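Below sits my pick:
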Amino acid sequence: MTHEKLIAEIYELYSKELYIYINRYTRSSEASEDILQDTFHNLIIYSKKHTIDKDRVRAFLYRTAHNLCINYRKKESRISFTEPKGSEQISGSSSVSDQIESGELEVKIYELLEEMDPLTKSIFIMKKENNMSIDEIAENTGKSTRTVRRRMQKALSYLHDALKQCGFLLLFLLIKMAQIAGLIVS
């Protein structure tokens, strides 16, 4: 298979799910399209120096897209401080320090995800970012719903323990974990 065909096949396989993932993060279709394009541009650049491992390319794409989303969010937060008063207000229910801690928590969660096995990480991402049901995840992964539930619980337990050791406030952590699990909506 030629290099171009391989990239085209990877794009066909993952572009839709990556776009959904990115769009949930950015909440902007224009920004999502740009980040998706940049993600595949990075893959093309990477593939010129390294061989593409089909088993790991999905993780590479998600990691790249996530990092680009973080950069986008940082850029947007810098811009929002320079906008005129009244154009964007911080919610009265959360302080600036809570928003900063929330961002730090999200970054730490994605760092910890990189330490998980690929199946558990994929299940977690499908549930959190793609908002898929357990049945949909089971169908996509070819695993039983019981296995998917166990892996999701394993991921949540691991994140809980690791984040607690990192010193995040317990109440804040529990709220975020409930949001991630889809038990409450932020």
The chain has two domains: 1-82, 95-186. The CA atoms of residues 49 and 159 lie 34 Å apart. The radius of gyration is 18 Å.
